[in-house]
Specification:
Blueprint lengths: L3 H58 L8 H25 L26 E3 L5 E2 L13 E3 L4 H6 L48
Antiparallel strand pairs: 1-2, 1-3
Length: 204
Amino acid sequence: MPNSNSFFDRLSANLTNATRTVSQNLKNSTDASKLMSQITAENRSIQENLNAIGKLYYDICKDEPDEAFRPMVEAIIKSEQRIVELQESIKVIRAREPELVPVPDGEENTEVKEQPVSSLMVCMGCGNTYPQGTAFCSVCGQRLVPQYQTAASASAAPPVTESDVFVNSGINAQESKNTQFCPYCGKKAAIPGQPFCDNCGHAI
């Protein structure tokens, strides 16, 4: 009968050796990778110094290079000249203007400009309205304002009815001292101190 202790000893030794082999291989790979990184860094440093040496030589000797360096120096000079030409071409391209289609006569300016609208003058104190050019209200003496101030506001405002504006009605100033009227549509404010017209939405 085989010795069981000898079998387990061999099994344990084999497992230990396998574990140590894997661990050592991993350590070897890690250490080698670190050294490879250092080699890469040194090669990068060499390349940077070589580039610096080449740039220094080119700056110093480009007018009279040694024969061994002449082809490379001439190639660099030619590339620099080509870069200048390309930069000038870029400036020309960026300055190009579009080819516009001729505009027929009478259609050069199609923009519709807002024109002031001639309208009545309204009193903000008592609501009386007056012809254009009147400056002050004959009932309460307040300065008048245009009923519509621009073409846009005039077109957007609702029509004025007789119940909205007292047209030269001669209303007593004392009776209407707390009454406000919208200068855009002439609507009487619903409550004293109302900031916006509930009819057209403009500030009162």
